[in-house]
Amino acid sequence: MSETPNTPDTDPHVMSYHRVRQALGAVALLLPLSLILGGVGVEGSLRDSLSNYFFSPLREVFVGALWAIGVFLISYKGYARRSDERFSDLVLARISGLSALMVSVFPSLEDCPVKTESCVVPERTVTQILVHTGPSAWVHNISAVVFFLCLVVFCLVQFPKTSDLARRRIYRACGYGILATLVLITSAFLAGRLGGEAAAEFVSRHNLIFWGEALGVWIFALAWLTKGKADQSAIRLMRKIVPGA
């Protein structure tokens, strides 16, 4: 008796690859949510940015999630480079993965909330000792921008190569969404630094940079969950739980 041939939806290797993509999306989805719930629970308010949670009791959550995302992206091979492509999935993934790791190991400038005792200011990290605190913050910020720009290229250039029209639309919406969050983050940053005291107070009071970064990471999560066909996995799980669904 011949074995039933595997299809893309039943091949264990393909399904495993999808699950890894889904895991990446899940980590990105949970990162801002964990910082929101943990930050409000511990400090009673949100920080000005995701990066500032490096100096909070949630430092391990922030750094650990970035390492999980960075290591996956560095090991992600993707599709082989075609003759008409300037770069491959492999190159783009390694640049974005390395950027995520650099965001985690090059801290930004510490920013402790006023009137709180929960600010954790560790001894200077190895990277801060090597390049000093100010340059470390610049490396951190530049790496974050590179990371988000790589996600834009993934969503607008690499991912839409699929033949599925609905998924192409989701990827493109994610790409433009991340670009919009970059505009929001940059505008809020410049307003906070150059717009005077009133503008800085407005940006801080509404946590514009934090929400811009959180939204960008959530859009990144949606793109990778879509790439990992999380919707199909959810349907299969539902059919197991509710026969005939």
Automatic annotation (TrEMBL):
It comes from the Bacteria. This is DUF998 domain-containing protein. Keywords: Membrane, Transmembrane, Transmembrane helix. It comes from Celeribacter baekdonensis B30. The chain crosses the membrane at residues 23-41, 61-79, 91-109, 138-159, 171-196, 208-226.
